[in-house]
């Protein structure tokens, strides 16, 4: 079996290439790629629990907690125990975190342009990757 014939390698290489393309765009925002993903969740729906962010990103809390601590230290979000459930931590954007969204709006278009896919190819790629993820996750 040749390396180039392996789907796993194609996924790995594509992931590395895309993530590398994000790097300069996110460096300008002061974010790493995983931090950007956390911010996308918060920009979509502010005031969420750590558990909800973890579920959205498919990350364990042990991986997510250091990301959240760094984003909090950067002044982009705040974490506080929920009054109705002290076991749960609510995450909220700060003013700086909300303002960063405007600066980040150009990122998806820049990445889309770099990928060079038509709208149909983009949709098909996302659908196929979601299917692979679902199939592998349930197996």
From TrEMBL:
GO terms for cellular component: cytoplasm. The keyword ATP-binding does not apply. Its main location: cytoplasm. GO terms for biological process: response to stress. Keywords: Cytoplasm, DNA-binding, Transcription, Transcription regulation. This is MarR family transcriptional regulator. It holds the Pfam family Staph_reg_Sar_Rot. It comes from Streptomyces mangrovisoli. It is found in: Cytoplasm. Residues 4-134 form the HTH marR-type domain. One of its GO terms (molecular function) is DNA binding.
